């Protein structure tokens, strides 16, 4: 979330600096580049969260199986 917020702030700063310079092509380029940076930052964050969730579920599945092997009823696990 912090990386995404930082990317958005950087994009808006670049756009406002381009507008202050009065260069329309630079404004368009700043918006396009900033949008790509924000998109790929969010995409990377989603990948990290998905990997973390997968690892957590795999770990919990192993613990659950170990308790079941010991004979603990499913309702108590």
From TrEMBL:
The chain crosses the membrane at residues 36-57. This is ABC transporter permease. The keyword Transmembrane applies. The lineage of its organism: Bacteria, Bacillati, Actinomycetota, Actinomycetes, Kitasatosporales. It comes from Streptomyces bauhiniae. Keywords: Membrane, Transmembrane, Transmembrane helix.
């Amino acid at each position: 979330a912090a990386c995404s917020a930082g990317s958005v702030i950087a994009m808006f700063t670049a756009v406002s600096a381009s507008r202050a310079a009065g260069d329309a092509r630079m404004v368009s380029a700043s918006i396009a580049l900033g949008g790509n940076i924000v998109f790929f930052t969010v995409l990377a964050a989603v990948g990290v969260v998905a990997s973390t969730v997968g690892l957590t579920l795999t770990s919990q599945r192993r613990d659950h199986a170990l308790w079941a092997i010991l004979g603990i009823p499913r309702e108590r696990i």
